[in-house]
Amino acid sequence: ARKAALSASTGPGATSDGHKVPLLANVGGPGDVPAAVEAGAEGVGLFRTEFLFLDDSKQAPSEEKQVAAYRAVLEAFPEGRVVVRVLDAGADKPLDFLTPADEPNPALGVRGLRSLLDHPEVLRTQLTALAKAVEGLPVYLEVMAPMVADRIDAKAFADACREAGLQAKFGAMVEIPSAALRARSILQEVEFLSLGTNDLAQYTFAADRQVGAVSRLQDPWQPALLDLVALSAEAARAEGKSCGVCGEAAADPLLACVLTGLGVTSLSMGAASIPYVRATLAKYTLAQCERAANAARSADSADEARSAAQAVLSGE
Ligand code: PEP
Ligand code: MG
């Protein structure tokens, strides 16, 4: 029992019957790496590269500066996975040189991948810097685009990655309901999906993630959100590809079990949450997680979904 407790507090993420669910860290730059390593992260599931860009709102950081920052993160996970998200500017993270100043609804405007497709030189520099940063390192680099709406977006991103000569897997974030609904079509262009549940909740419920008054609708236990997660995970499974979660939802230990039951293949979160998620996941079998997921999806509210999953997992 002592050995089991020990492995549940350090080893790779898995259910009690050995179904592996890699536990990855969300990082904003090299400064977040020590905590991720300390927590036993199996890699990085979301490197939010926009933090590199926030120092100077007038221009992008030089290629050299980007190479150094990417390399510092990539070096920390030999034989591990590092998923880098290309710049996600706009909406709550505007940049003067990318974000139009006069948008009535910035969250629905030119943000994420849309900004990069409007400024291909910024995307090109970022992808070239990543290609240089990974040279000679044994890490598995994956690169993904934020705010992919459809197959056209996914193809544009994959084309840009190929043109930059990047040796990596290319993926799409699922943050817009259209991407979840047509995940199979998007997967014709990219090799993996990553669910950004923070934005996916915002766009599914028409509830601004920065407005406290509508926070009830931002609850990731909302059954409608779970349905979109299930659709995405099922599409990925049908295509033989992976579908992770890198939004806040992954950091809730009970919800992490439900997401696993929905077919999600990896979970990425702030490093501090990893030990709790690892320990909780290790208590239940995959079949229990699946039953909890079904119970949560049958509920009519976030609170009911949470209670239903809890009841299943505690054997009530
Ligand atoms: C998300 O939207 O869930 C996500 C992971 O991206 P961010 O929180 O950086 O928008
Ligand atoms: Mg997002």
TrEMBL record:
Q: Which UniProt keywords apply?
A: Cytoplasm, Kinase, Magnesium, Metal-binding, Phosphotransferase system, Sugar transport, Transferase, Transport
Q: Which E.C. number(s) belong to this protein?
A: 2.7.3.9
Q: Which reaction does it catalyse?
A: L-histidyl-[protein] + phosphoenolpyruvate = N(pros)-phospho-L-histidyl-[protein] + pyruvate
Task: Tell me the compartments it is located in.
Answer: Cytoplasm
Signal sequence interval, chain numbering: none
The cofactor required is: Mg(2+)
User: Keyword Transferase: yes or no?
Assistant: yes
Main localization category? cytoplasm
Q: What does this protein do?
A: General (non sugar-specific) component of the phosphoenolpyruvate-dependent sugar phosphotransferase system (sugar PTS). This major carbohydrate active-transport system catalyzes the phosphorylation of incoming sugar substrates concomitantly with their translocation across the cell membrane. Enzyme I transfers the phosphoryl group from phosphoenolpyruvate (PEP) to the phosphoryl carrier protein (HPr).
What protein family does this chain belong to? Belongs to the PEP-utilizing enzyme family.
Q: What is the official name of this protein in its record? A: Phosphoenolpyruvate-protein phosphotransferase
Tell me what organism the protein belongs to.
Streptomyces globisporus
The organism's lineage is: Bacteria, Bacillati, Actinomycetota, Actinomycetes, Kitasatosporales
Which portion of the complete protein is shown here? 241 to 556 of 556
